[in-house]
Write a structure and sequence with these properties.
alpha/beta, Lyase, Ornithine Decarboxylase, Chain A, domain 1, TIM Barrel, 2 domains, 9-stranded mixed beta sheet, 8-stranded parallel beta barrel, 12 helices, 25% strand, globular, binds ligand LLP
Length: 421
């Protein structure tokens, strides 16, 4: 459920009409609903109630400072994957002890920044990274709390570009080598092992792969404890999917996911961390765009929008589906026409949807892409010299621009002329 509903014939974000935001900030823009973000966070809180836990929002899905502060104020931890994300989380007011640092390629400089600022744990993904972290921490005279990410070799049954838990993927260490690597970690200076980490992929719409992976983590916990390690934290990653197509069966709910966690690792006495991104931010955001032209091709009608693949890359990158709805409520039972919905960028890949049935739309109309709050703005680029689009946040009847649209001059002046030119 989200808070983007038609009211009096027009799409609203909570109590604010989308047309009102469009009139003030221009199109295209992203808009986020505070109530939806908060609701989704609380669903995970309820799902894990009864277990000691920390829900670490994966800020790679949406890194806006206002989004991070909204969640941070509810007690969320943050899962970061770069020094940039770490520093943004701190700038949004999240304390270091609630930040976990994931990612396969942390540099020594990034490790130093997080150790200096304070960090809950590093999720270490390889032996060379372990050695580097040990050296950095020891040189600073501090100890780095770590989990080691294991690769459980489980098929997440999701899009190949976002599956991470098979042995051919670059993530984690093979679970078969885990005992040896934990033993190595136990011997290294500057390292304190606190737990195990796993993350098998994103947009999972089936709980079975989670169950398989978490059972393997439970077994490993017992083994490692028998080896003498104090395993007190389990980071179970993110990945729970969302309903991108309203017409499809809904994926499992956080409560069902929580039940899997309780059933598989709930009796180990560990503190549980999870790193959901998409389920919290995805349906909390829309991309709002205006139709520039309706162009009749030989065989099809093209809706040419003012947003493009540089603003929302998921359809061209993953073939992802986003529901696209008119901002003015269509008449119930009205005629539906098949449109090819495209952007102005000069490649055929700049296509949001093909032959998508939609109510009749005219040039100048506003349309909204649903489920665009995760992996939308964060993956945007200025391809074709199209300035990054603004982000807006709504809370009740208020709205605020939380990232301004750069002017053309600002965009141009980020380049500089080589001195010989
Ligand atoms: N933790 C780790 C270590 C991750 O790699 C990810 C996502 C998450 C947590 C959060 O997963 P979520 O709950 O959001 O599924 N750009 C792609 C998704 C990439 C996901 C990468 N890792 C997309 O637009 O679908």
């Amino acid at each position: 459920m989200d808070h983007f509903l038609y009211r009096d014939g027009a799409l609203h974000a909570e109590d604010v009409a989308i047309t009102e935001i469009a009139a003030e900030v221009g199109t295209p823009f992203y808009v986020y609903s505070t109530a939806t973000l908060e609701r989704h966070f609380r669903l995970f809180e309820e799902a894990l109630s009864g277990l000691p836990h920390l829900i670490c929002f994966a800020m790679k899905s949406n890194g806006n400072l206002s989004v991070i502060r909204t969640l941070g104020a509810l007690g969320a931890g943050i899962d970061v994957v770069s020094a940039g994300e770490y520093l943004k989380a701190r700038a949004a007011g999240v304390p270091g002890e609630r930040i976990v640092f994931s990612g396969v390629g942390k540099t020594r400089e990034e490790m130093r920044i997080a150790l200096e600022g304070g960090i809950r744990q590093f999720n270490v993904e390889s032996e060379p990274e372990l050695a580097a972290l040990s050296a950095v921490a020891a040189s600073m005279g501090v100890t780095a709390p770590i989990t080691i990410r294991v690769n459980p070799d489980v098929d997440a049954k999701t899009h190949e570009k976002i599956a991470t838990g098979k042995k051919e993927n670059k993530f984690g260490i093979p679970i078969s080598r885990a005992r040896a690597v934990f033993a190595e970690a136990g011997r290294l200076p500057g390292i304190e092992v606190v737990g195990i980490d796993v993350h098998i992929g994103s947009q999972l719409v089936d709980l079975e792969p989670f169950e398989q992976a978490y059972l393997k983590v439970a077994d490993l916990t017992r083994q490692l404890r028998a080896d003498g390690h104090d395993i007190r934290r389990l980071d179970l990653g993110g990945g729970l999917g969302i309903p991108y197509e309203r017409s499809n069966a809904a994926p499992p709910l956080p409560l069902d996911y929580g039940a899997v966690i309780k059933r598989t690792v709930g009796d180990l006495g560990c503190e549980i961390e999870i790193e959901p991104g998409r389920l919290i931010s995805g349906n909390a955001g829309l991309l709002v765009s205006r139709v520039i032209y309706v162009k009749s091709g030989e065989e099809r009608e093209f809706l040419i929008l003012d947003s493009a693949m540089n603003d929302l890359v998921r359809p061209s990158m993953y073939g992802a589906h986003h529901d696209i709805v008119p901002v003015v409520e269509p008449a119930p039972g009205g005629e539906m026409l098949p449109y090819d919905v495209v952007g102005p960028v000069c490649e055929t890949g700049d296509t949001f949807a093909k032959q998508r049935p939609m109510p009749r739309v005219a040039a100048g109309d506003l349309v909204a892409f649903r489920s665009a709050g995760a992996y939308g703005a964060v993956m945007a680029s200025e391809y074709n010299a199209r300035p990054l689009i603004p982000e807006v946040m709504v809370k009740g009847d208020q709205f605020a621009v939380i990232r301004a649209r750069p002017t053309y001059d600002e965009m141009i002046n980020r380049d500089s002329m080589a001195p010989w030119l």
